[in-house]
Amino acid sequence: MTAGLYASRAKLDTILLDSVGCGGQSVITDWIDNYPGFPEGSSGYDLAANMEKQARRFNLAVVLEEATSIERQPDGFTVSTPANTYHTKTVIIAAGATHKKMDVPGELDLTGKGVSYCATCDGPFFRDKEVALVGGGDSAIQEAIFLTRFVKSVTVIHRRDSLRAAKILQDKAFANPKIKFIWDSVVTAVRGNDQATAVALKNVRTDAVSELPVSGIFVFIGLVPNTAFLSGLVACDKQGYIVTDDAMATAIPGIFACGDIRVKLLRQVVTAAGDGATAAVAAQHYLESLS
Ligand code: NAP
Fold first, then answer.
1. Known catalytic residue: 121?
2. pTM
């Protein structure tokens, strides 16, 4: 959204492609507490909607089509979607990342039937129920706290004995009587037929196995960058994140990448916005260098 805002404000002929709508992960984030300028925080939905409104004020064209490939051409690039092919001199890739799966038996079959990757979307379905939540990072702990608005209890299952999440989130979670913890453990299967009923657990220190009866399982074990559609066009690190320089330039002149999809220390809205602004200005400089 920020790259689109900067590019359209600089009067570059810009279209923003998105398969589902603007805002990415922030739309399904309940509350964003650390984006500057909002003393009380903001709902992720409102923040994304305001960013879109602001970008559209500068006539950013938003096209709801999924980019399925980017190809190099002698005079630039073509970006294909199922409906169209767009010819362009420069591309900014801001396709973000999606939640990682546990890859255990039952997870796929019971997705939407108890297994969820979005507490904001599915939390209200588990009112007064007992749920499990897997992970120990910022997303896991933030969403565990959010779930306590609805559920009877949320048991956080973490593969180590200390959390990765920011201290402020940890303190809130430890103080919340509805949040319990199972340490040093991983989920080995999700049980249930039409609906999830339990998770099978293994203690990674002792190898002891157990089952925890739950109605829902929320999975927040990190992110996978959405780079599959690029088919190796740009260089990525071992985890698949796009390698850029400080100006968000990839190894291919004219292609820039910003936000969660690129190699970086901190994946948050504020750093994505900074990346987006840099990418748009760098793209502008690149276009100027062509003329
Ligand atoms: P993350 O920081 O990568 O944390 C993933 C968590 O899942 C870690 O605790 C990790 O354990 C665990 N994990 C990874 N693979 C696992 C597996 N196969 N089985 C079991 N557990 C596994 O991911 P995230 O929490 O989604 O956050 C992603 C990025 O967004 C981060 O940069 C984060 O700071 C940012 N974010 C920030 C906020 C905020 O500022 N409030 C909110 C949400 C997200 P280990 O700890 O043992 O590695």
1. yes
2. 0.85
